[in-house]
């Protein structure tokens, strides 16, 4: 039996597939939930096609959970960049309207027409690093929220007092001399003490997370932290988001993907360089 390409348009709760042959003729289509039952049904559905290649859009984004499950189950998977799928959809339909079925078909067509797409490989260590980086970001946001609540409560307890970079120790010292007499004041002070305890806890988690991220980055043999200004969190995020750097054929392609490649932009008689991520600079 000839090889077929299974184009997958992945979402959090569902995945739409379009199966085409090497002549881009539609063979089958389907839509499945991404829970275990839906995933099992999808693999059973395609089992009759012994020679199959999965093409998943956004293997480093929305498609990551699905493509890793497929790879771990022994399936062959390639990563289809969203830009290529959008281009095929536009050229083949003369419009850029999106439906799940059209997206899945475009993804499959890209895999047929494009040699050298990145093959997805299982990488448990990178997956763990990405989880740690995400957790660190969540803890950082939680700390900001905790400090904001603490600032508000302290401002109500001690009017006119506000520390720009508030720490748990500073908050404790500020609370030491506050002894409200009314019920509202006592309740506010108790809530402030609870927020201080939450800040102490999240700071301890962030400290432990920093050490774990540092060890994980070093374990991958990365020297990113040797660069001034890049710490464990920044290095982990770069590694996690980049994934397999070999998927970028040149340095210029990687710079374009990160949004740091300079672009020519005219301003009057002066030619400036601009970065999509950083604005315009001389």
TrEMBL record:
Pfam family, one: DEDD_Tnp_IS110
Transposase IS110-like N-terminal domain boundaries: 6-159
Domain called Transposase IS116/IS110/IS902 C-terminal: residue spans: 223-270
Protein name per the record: Transposase
Organism of origin: Ornithinimicrobium kibberense
